[in-house]
Write a structure and sequence with these properties.
Elements: H1 20-26, H2 29-32, H3 36-52, H4 58-77, H5 89-101, H6 103-107, H7 114-150, E1 155-160, E2 163-169, H8 170-194, E3 197-198, H9 214-221, E4 225-226, H10 230-235, H11 238-264, E5 272-273, H12 292-315, H13 330-352, E6 355-356, H14 358-364, H15 372-381, H16 386-403, H17 412-415, H18 426-430, H19 447-460
Parallel strand pairs: 3-4
Antiparallel strand pairs: 1-2, 5-6
């Protein structure tokens, strides 16, 4: 039943094989197999470097490159057999390569360790995935800018404390999320930059007993620098933390956006309608259109934050240099990559079919005295100190609440009961539909400023 166990590539000093529990807890191939492209790319570069320094002859190099190419094609075709007994992606590929080409395969691991090999693979992986994520972010930001331009005339309440505060343009509200996502793109670029130093050539921790050409490896693999300290090279996972931090902040931004989409799609708000393709029904209530995609993206932000905390907790107590605990860095990284990409795809899908109810939004700005600040500013421009203006308008609001008077239709005669400086030009000031154009400051919600934002965002993406 328990046949002869496969000899480990590192097993020379052991007289007995690993226990079944050790095999199970040590194996990472079930998730790190996704690093195969990066592992093979690194091995090809390493083999070429070994050829340059005379460890591999031209025939051995050719056999290794050909063999790794065949393995790559088999993995992508789904015909390559990964074995748990070989622990990880590195050993699975090396073992099969050696079975096929013999001693040349056994020479490949000269002048490297799995410690600097995995550090290389993960850096390459983050670089590759960052490019795909950046493109999704650009698509989402461009889509938001397009929706903002298309709905430039729609007005809705801006909220503080979830209470109606002041009228704003829908476009201005949407662009706030575009600016958040642009900052996320900067964080993503910083995470990618943090992964741009080459760790390969550091060995297990102390360097190597060979005159390796790390500059050649740097150029071959497209890195911008070389990690200068071999101990740091194999123990550093700051670049993974940087990526997970980007993912956690992005998840928070998407969660906030989704929270508003959920609220706006309720019958109480009815500001938007999400397409059927991104909503679901109820198993018992036939009328339901649940915003499940928005809710799930909102929920996935917790995973992204948890993955960041997980790696922080993992690393905080580790001594120099490599420790096997660090094998646990990949699952949170891979999960965050998958979650970020799926969440961005979900946002793009939701915004593709969204429709806005401008009429409902217009109705909402006629609530909760949304132009009260405009009224206070009017008095201030007439020479009334702003704190006095604030108090006067507060008394007007209280009067409307107590008497049922319509704040938005009060005329100058009624308002002069509270201050003699009110004149007949007050009607436009109370009109919430004209409020946005009174915002003169850069970055505000006026149409001109919103159009400047759209132009600036499009240049950035």
């Amino acid at each position: 039943m328990g046949g002869k166990k496969e000899k480990k590539l590192w097993g020379g000093r052991f007289s007995e094989g690993s226990s079944s529990v050790t095999e199970k807890i040590s194996s990472s191939i079930q998730y790190d197999s996704r690093l195969y492209r990066q592992d093979i790319r690194g091995s090809v570069a390493h083999a070429r470097m070994l050829n340059r320094i005379g460890i591999l002859n031209d025939g051995e190099l050719a056999a290794i490159v050909k063999g790794l190419g065949e393995i790559m094609r088999e993995i992508e075709a789904g015909s390559f057999e990964f074995k748990t007994s070989r622990e990880d992606i590195h050993m699975n590929i090396e073992a099969v390569l050696t079975e096929r080409i013999g001693d040349a395969g056994r020479k490949l691991h000269t002048a490297r360790s799995r410690n600097d090999q995995v550090a290389l693979d993960v850096r390459l992986y983050i670089r590759d995935e960052a490019g795909e994520i950046e493109e999704l972010l650009k698509r989402l930001v461009s889509m938001i800018a397009g929706l903002a331009e298309k709905n430039a005339e729609a007005i809705l309440p801006g909220y503080t404390h979830m209470q109606v505060a002041q009228p704003v343009r829908l476009s201005h509200h949407l662009l706030a999320y575009a600016w958040q996502l642009l900052r996320d793109m900067k964080r993503l670029a910083a995470a990618r930059d943090a992964a741009m130093s080459l760790p390969l050539g550091s060995g297990a921790l102390a360097g190597l007993n060979y005159p390796t050409d790390r500059e050649f490896l740097r150029e071959e693999l497209g890195f911008t620098g070389i990690v200068p300290n071999s101990m740091d090279a194999v123990s550093d996972r700051d670049f993974v933390l940087d990526f997970l931090y980007f993912a956690a902040v992005l998840g928070t931004h998407l969660s906030r956006f989704c929270e508003e989409l959920v609220l706006w799609s309720t019958s109480e708000f009815a500001y938007i309608r999400l397409a059927d393709g991104v909503t679901t029904g109820s198993s018992i209530m036939p009328q339901k259109r649940n915003p499940d995609v928005a809710e799930l993206i909102r929920g996935k932000s917790g995973r992204l934050l948890g993955n960041l905390v997980s790696l922080f907790t993992l690393l905080k107590g580790l001594p120099m240099t490599y420790n096997r605990d660090m094998q646990e860095d990949k699952e949170p990284l891979f999960d965050s990559v998958d979650t970020v990409k799926l969440s961005l795809e979900g946002m793009i899908e939701m915004l593709t079919g969204i429709t806005f109810n401008a009429g409902r939004m217009k109705e909402a700005v006629y609530r909760n005295f949304s132009t009260a600040t405009d009224l206070a500013d009017y008095l201030a421009r007439k020479g009334v100190p702003f704190r006095n203006s604030h108090e006067i308008v507060g008394s007007i609001v209280r009067h409307c609440e107590q008497t049922g008077a319509d704040f938005f239709s009060m005329d100058a005669k009624a308002l002069r009961e509270f201050s003699p400086v009110f004149e007949d030009d007050i009607a436009d000031v109370l009109n919430p539909e004209k409020s946005t154009e009174r915002k003169l400051s850069p970055g505000g919600t006026s149409r001109a400023e919103v159009m400047k934002q759209i132009e600036a965002i499009r240049k950035l993406v």
